[in-house]
Every structure is written in C-alpha cells, then in structure tokens.
Design brief:
With 418 residues, the chain is mainly alpha-helical. It is built from 20 helices and no strands.
Length: 418
Amino acid sequence: MIIGFFAATRTAGRGSLTRAFIICIAFIFTASAHSQQIGSPLHTNALNLDPTVRDGYQHFYNLDYDGAISRFETVLNSNPQNPMAYDYVLMATVFRELYHQDLLDTTYYAHDSFLNSKRNVPVPDAIRQRIEFLTNTAISLCDRQIHDNSRNANAFFARGYARGMHASFITLVDHSFVAAARQGYAARGDSEQVLQIDPLYADAKMAIGIQQFAVASLPRIIRMMVGIAGVSGNRERGLQLLRESAAHGTVTAVESRTVLSLFLRHDARYQEALVVQRGLAQEFPHDYLFRLEEANLTKDAGNGPAAIATYKAVLADAAKPGYFIDPRLQMAWFGLADTERGQNDIENAAKHYLQAAEQPNCSDWLRRRAQLNAGEMFDLLHNRSEAIRLYQLAAAGGGDQSQADAARRYLKTPYAGK
C-alpha cells in the first residue's frame, strides 16, 4: 500500500507531492504549544485546568520537555483513570523525541523529498515502547468510557487526541503515511462526535479543520490509496475551523494557530502566515521553534535580507545564557545558509552550512545534509579539495545514508548548479 501511495504521488506530479505531504504531517505541530487561555470547564476536561497541568504546559511552551514530562507524570500518577493524563505525557514524549531528531523544522517538509527520503530515524526501543504504551492505554480507557457512556465528550476528545499524537510519530519517524492518514481520519471522527454532544467544545474543531484542509488538498487518487476516497474536504472551511479553535479553544488554541500558519504557508499565503507566526513568536519569545519558524516564513515569502536578519536575531538570543532551552542551533544555521544561498552569497552559505554540521547535538541526517550542501558551495567557489572532503563525509558508510547518492555523484562530477 505504501509503495502504491508513493507511486501515485509521483505520477500526479510535483504539485501533488507538495499537497500530499499535508495529510502526512497534519498533526506535527498540533502539540508545539498549548494555550494559556482558560475555557469553561463545561466544555473541556476539568483536568485541563489543573495547576500542575498548566505548569507543565508552561515548561512545554519553552521546549523544556523534561520539565513538562516530570509534571505530567505527576498528574498521571494522581489520575490513572483519566485518558487526558496519558495524552499529556504522550504529547511531551513524542515531541521531545521529534525535536531531538531534528524533525520539528518545517523546512524539512517544504520540499517534495520528504516523501521519498531514505532517512532512518533511530528511536531508542524504550522510547518507542513508552509511546505505544501511552497511546494504547489512553485509547483503551476512552473505549471503556465511551462504552459506558456514549455521550462522554471528554473521552471522544481524548481518544482523538491520542490518535493524532501517534499519527505524528509514525509519520515522521516511520514514514507510515497510510496508517497516519487513517488515524487522522479517525481523530476527525472522534472530534465530530464531540461536537454532536457539545457544540461549544471548541477544541474539537482543530482535528476537523486539519482534516478538512488536508483532504481537500489531496488528489482523489491519493485519497483512494490511503482509503479515504469518500471523505469530503474544504480548504477554506478547514482554515475557518482552525481560526475558531484558536479563538475559543482551551487546549488547542495555540496548536490551531500553529497549524493555521503551516497551512497558509502551504498555500503560499505568506503574509497571512507571518501575521499568525509573529503573534506566536511575540507571545512565546523563548520558544525556539516559534522564533525559527518566523525566519523560515520570511525566507519563503521572498524577503531574503529580512530572513537573514531574523535568523541572526534568533542566533544572537541563543547566545544569551538561558534564553532558550536546548536550542537546536543547526536548524537556524542551516536556514541562514539556505537563505544566503538564495541571495547568491555563496561564501557565507558555505561557512554557515559548516556551522550547522558542527553543532554537537546535530542529528546524523542533518549533519550530512549540511556537509553535502557545504560541498556544493565549495564547488561553486572552485575549492574542489574542500568540496571533495565534505562529499566524502556525507557519503561515509554507517549512519544516515539519505545524502549518500548525491554526494557520490558530486565526487565524480563537480556541482555546477546554484
């Protein structure tokens, strides 16, 4: 099925490939932060308003995943029968691993290569088992609660949330696009049940909005491949639902704004996306990913000089002790280098690709990608010996091999593009 899915997307052309990735990563940023807005307990799980839960989210806002998990584990120990407690720990565990794997930089998904990447993501068995346990336990608890009370809106929401988190994980780590698409559809179904029970449960609008936009963005042949041929979608309706959950949600307000920015970026509505993203960056100035995404969007909008200034501002703040927690500086250096490359500043692009590769917490995949790109820049600078050295590093045996074919090609023939 997965082979057929890839074949269909390749046949449909580059535009379809770009559209196809949306359904695969629709839940990627749905947990990048949680809202500080406190809604009515009549339309949310009361546990969402618990002070320890809110404190855990504050740590999560600042990408202090360990601090968030510690607090969420405390909540879970006190509420072992509440599926949302498992969802909190699941969310933080999944996104801590994605962050450590350099998988939360949206530039990775802005190109068609994401779909057929050879990238291997080496998740430790203990973390994978923990994620599966949390997902399965949350869903099992919800199933029992729904069996006992078919109008339990909180159980439907918690089940959809767990499915969405797991879809993020298997999409990015395992490239299990078909399974993730079906989980996303199931999450939409759970959220629709929530709104039938309680039309004012605004958080439920997020999953429906994501699916509305994602399905409408996919060609029919791909919907058939992933088994959702009969599912309807409407892009503008999806964006409107995201705006509503952003405005009125209790635990999805910030996630909805994050996804809204991503979808607007997908549709090349860069100025609208920037308004949303700048609001997030201003509200959470110590969230490294929000700040980085503002720079990425500025680059995509075609304002190279402003993007360069924004990347440099992020790096300057990162140099301040304690400003960011565990910033993955390779993402900013790589984005800066890419922008300089687009501005034909080849010398600085080469230098900053090397900066990305030299970061001590850089994943093997991003390091070799940066080495390959740096090699290309040195070829353009007619420094063939340095280019060869970097191609050899990118093509070395062991570890990630997703850059190896291109590196070996340029070892034979110097890069001559841009």
